[in-house]
Amino acid sequence: MRLIDLSSTIDANAWEVDGIRHEVLTPADGARHMAEGMLRDHGLEFDVADLPDGELLSLDTLTLTTHTGTHVDAPSHYGSRAAYGVPRHIDELPLEWFIGPGVRLDLTDCGVGTVGVDRLRRAFDEIDHRPSAGEIVLLHTGAERLAGTPEYFTRFAGLDGAATNLLLDLGVRLIGTDAFGLDAPFTHMLAEFQRTRDRSVLWPAHFAGRQREYCQIERLSNLGALPAPTGFTVQAFPVKIAGAGAGWTRAVALLD
Q1: What are residue 254's DSSP bridge partners?
Q2: Tens digit of each residue's pLDDT (9 = 90 or more) over 176-218
Q3: Which GO terms label this protein's molecular function in UniProt (predicted)?
Q4: CA 256/CA 254 separation, integer angstroms
Q5: Taking Cα atoms as reference points, which of 99, 114, 104, 224 lies closest to residue 160?
Q6: Closest to 204 measured CA to CA, from 139, 132, 136, 114
Q7: DSSP assignment string, 36-80
Q8: I need a labelling partner for 203 at 20 to 30 A (CA). Which of 165, 181, 188, 241 fits?
Q9: pLDDT, tens digit, for every residue of 229-250?
């Protein structure tokens, strides 16, 4: 089996809307930390010089949001109420949702803004495949080339409400994108709202999750490495965080 990594790297040195703090306790620091803790909490003395090279174990502490890096949005992220009942958190969703046949749609020709139903249907025609229930749809927008820069937040294409609902109508429960989000950029949506005063342009892909239960994978990477638009399996199990609206995932494609 061949594996293709579809995940972006969490890097504290790269630009993020919400910054990352990454603190490292080196193996030498870890030895001293252990010795001090044993003496303080258990009254046991230990000389770190008795350890090989005076080192024990390293420890990484990160401060970041659940929407940093490749992650899965849960229904509870979209709002506190839904037409179908109480939206579930990331730890409450069935694992079956996060593994299944993948379908890559090429939207790399789309500019900044929204992708509508007509463009989505054309993408189906281009690969001679219409997504169906149980399949995981991946939107290849090409936005990953801007990852780690401020432009990643403002220059990409996202689905409008009708396009999102088209996929949900087909039975799709998991939609992924290599862009910062499944909706159009915040800057684009807010500018459209100021121009039209039409509330339907505000986060329509996310708000579709208030009507029907589904999940998004955002900030995917490497979709161009997939050898074909179909014929692969996507696995994107989210980290099990109690009561969270999202969870990080190491998304991969599996090919026979």
Answers
A1: 3, 233
A2: 999 999 999 999 999 999 999 999 999 999 999 999 999 999 9
A3: arylformamidase activity
A4: 7
A5: 114
A6: 114
A7: HHHHHHH-----GGGSGGG----EEEEE--TTSSSEEE-GGGG-S
A8: 241
A9: 999 999 999 999 999 999 999 9
Tokens of 70: 């490749």
Give the model's pLDDT for residue 134: 96
Residue 106: phi and psi, rounded to 5, are -85, 110
- Domain spans of the chain? 5-9+65-255, 21-63
Strand partners, 255: 2
Task: Report the C-alpha gap between 241 and 233 in whole angstroms.
Answer: 24
Q: Which long-range contacts (CB under 8 A, 24 or more apart) does 145-151 make?
A: 147/8, 147/14, 147/219, 147/221, 148/11, 148/14, 148/15, 149/15, 150/15
Residue 180 exposure: Cα atoms within 13 Å on the Cβ side: 22
Q: Tokens in use for 226?
A: 């997939």
Closest CA to 33 of 54, 52, 14: 54
CATH architecture of 5-9+65-255: 3-Layer(bba) Sandwich (3.50)
Contact 249, 10 (CB under 8 A): no
Q: What are the angstrom distances between the C-alpha of 185 and each of 113, 115, 127, 230?
A: 7, 12, 27, 28
Residues listed for the chain: 256
pLDDT score at 213: 98
Query: 89: Cβ–Cβ under 8 A, 6 or more apart, which residues?
Result: 74, 76, 241, 242, 243, 244, 245
Residue 27 banded pLDDT, cuts 50, 70, 90: very high
Could you tell me what percent of the chain has a pLDDT over 70? Answer: 100
